[in-house]
Design goal:
single chain; three-stranded antiparallel β-sheet; 7 strands; 25% helix; Rad52_fam
């Protein structure tokens, strides 16, 4: 069975960028891409139909295990499992979502994100500045179009297009 929907390139709205860390000098942040849990549900619905897959969550010490089971056209079932810790914000909901997203990667969904470049954003803030979001979206579009992207990308405020005044 070809998993063309699960393995199709992720669009910018299916990706959530998170701050991983700040550089020692405090002048840049490192951001990393993650699939959203809504993307997981949507892609599995599109690939297998809303009744052609299910997930089971088990609480374990410090986190959660998610098992996703899919029904194949021949009637056989395939299951894969992965886990995640409780998160700092919304520990239960976040941990369950992270376990489900990690499990989806076992099926190939979002695996390409591991090949994305290392992205630095020039800012002294601890969050992704609004000017950087369109640049991140453009980078995703370029990757999806097969464009070459460096192994390390540094986004700077001057890279952002100034807002046009009417």
């Amino acid at each position: 069975m070809e998993l063309n929907v699960l393995n199709a390139p992720l669009t910018a709205h299916e990706i959530e960028w998170r701050v991983q860390s700040q550089t020692k000098d405090g002048q840049k942040i490192i951001v990393v891409p993650y699939i959203t849990n809504r993307c997981v549900m949507q892609r599995f619905d599109e690939q297998f139909g809303w009744s052609g897959w299910n997930n089971e969550i088990k609480e374990i010490d410090g986190g959660f295990l998610c098992t996703i089971t899919v029904m194949l056209p021949d009637g056989s079932a395939v299951s894969k499992t992965d886990g995640a810790s409780r998160t700092g914000i919304e520990p239960v909901k976040g941990g369950i979502s992270d376990a489900m997203k990690r499990c989806a990667v076992q099926f190939g969904l979002g695996r390409a994100l591991y090949d994305f470049p290392k992205v630095f954003v020039e800012t002294t803030d601890k969050y992704i500045p609004s000017w950087a979001v369109p640049l991140l979206d453009a980078m995703v579009a370029k990757i999806n179009a097969g464009g070459a992207v460096r192994d390390v990308v540094v986004l700077k405020p001057e890279h952002a297009k100034p807002a046009r005044v009417a």
